[in-house]
Amino acid sequence: MASIEYVSDSREYVPAASLAARARRARLAQLEEPTEQPEEVTLAEQAELVEQAEPVEQAGPVEPAGLVEQADLVEPAEPVEQAEPVEQAEPVEQAEPVGKTPPDAPDGPAVPQVNDLPEADGGQPVLTVAPPRRPQRRWLAVLAAVAVFAAAAGVVAGRYMVSPADVLAQSKPPAPTLITAVVQETVLEQTVISRGAIAPASQYSIGRGKLLPGGSLTEPAGGDEVLTAVHVHAGDAVDAGAVVAEVSGRPIIVLPGAKAMYRDMASGTTGEDVRQLQEALRVLGYFSSSPDGQYGAGTVTGVKQLYADRGYDSAGDAPRNEIVFLPSLPGHVTAVAPGVGFAAPQVIVQITPGQLNVTSSVAMSQAALLQTGSQADLDLPSGTFTGVVAAKGAPDPQTGMVSVVVTPDEPLDYALSGSDIRVTFTTASTPAAVLAVPLSAVSSDSRGQQYVIVRGADGALTRFPVTVGVRGDDLVEITPVTPGSVRAGDTVVIGG
Q1: Tell me, what DSSP letter sits at residue 483?
Q2: Could you give the 3-state DSSP secondary structure of residue 162?
Q3: Could you give the C-alpha distances from 324 to 133, 226, 462, in angstroms and in order?
Q4: How confident is the model over 108-130, as a mean pLDDT?
Q5: How far apart are CA 10 and CA 31, in angstroms?
Q6: Among the CATH numbers 3.90.960.10, 3.40.50.720, 2.40.420.20, 3.10.350.10, which is that of 432-495?
Q7: Contact at 8 Å (CB) between 470 and 428?
Q8: Alpha-carbon distance 452 to 454, whole Å?
Q9: Alpha carbons 292 and 270: distance in angstroms, whole number
Q10: Can you name the CATH fold of 222-352?
């Protein structure tokens, strides 16, 4: 009875006789090769291989174990009926010779050759075939990597992809809520905010030995005189006998007196201006006689001493361009000419006899709220100073602005003259702490009754009538019509 072998690679039944013939031909080809000598198989080894092939009788025709099933070719056994692919047995001829392990076969013992095996009953050799190859593990690794990548891609796509329904849900406006504020108890002030310039109430502009009603600290006065020195700075105090500047090497001396220095005075000059000079010299200790208005020897001596103590020569005369009388001393310097070494300007020094004030311009409608004595806060670089409204001017017909003068409670630094600062006027204030809410919390009904809406602890909204008072700092004073209906700390609705 012939043996039928199940070939795992081609999955077909092939008669053992055909395989044996092919094996013999392969064996002969190997014997003809001079470089390789086939390994002889002893009878003991053949018997051992036969014993190893016994499980062939227990294998089914299609089991993947790759065992050989023995069948009788003479009898049309059932396995022969399933061997339809016999006509496609050509791949079997391309197989490696029986008895040699193919290069890509898994590790294991070589398949024994057909002609080396003992014959079974019936004279037919028994043939065994190696088990079918196992699937390559690298394909499993590739499939696992693909699965992991697909899972990661799904997670990423799920995180960043948004459905139209999600977009619509996210674009919906939030649920409406109430905007509320807390009722405060505070002192309210109604204010007017403006800008102001620091300037003296009165100011003397000193030129080359004369007082000027105005003029420029930089424009030349004309002529060939040069400003050679300025001995004072802004903010300095100036008293009788001070040398404030020097023009072409000659001093400008400040003396007290209401009458202007309009002429040169020398020995023999008489008049009230001479008497004024003698009085100034007497105050400084340079004239001991009683002033009589006669420019005599005592006056000449006093003038010489005045100049000498200040480092200048004098013949005893009083030149008009070197002495300046000021109606009020002491005073303070508010500005000086910057161009030392250049042509003498029209105004060399500006002096104020009093303290600095703040002058502000406010709209006519706001000025009506200001009264003489109203409080004002002055924001200075060194801090906040207080003052009072000293005077209001007439409205400007072109701009409609009103000039308001503020006198500081404390003297300001004269170096601040000309500075621009913020001024806050207080037009009204409550005498004590009052209930106050934001202005938007107060509403009016159709009858003109003002009210606020209070939200209770349980969320209930209740309307309470109120009257309003002083407004200030975005707050307004309220007084409940029903006493105690609105208290400090209550929550009022301002919007929503």
Answers
A1: T
A2: coil
A3: 127, 18, 77
A4: 49
A5: 28
A6: 2.40.420.20
A7: yes
A8: 6
A9: 9
A10: Muramoyl-pentapeptide Carboxypeptidase; domain 1 (1.10.101)
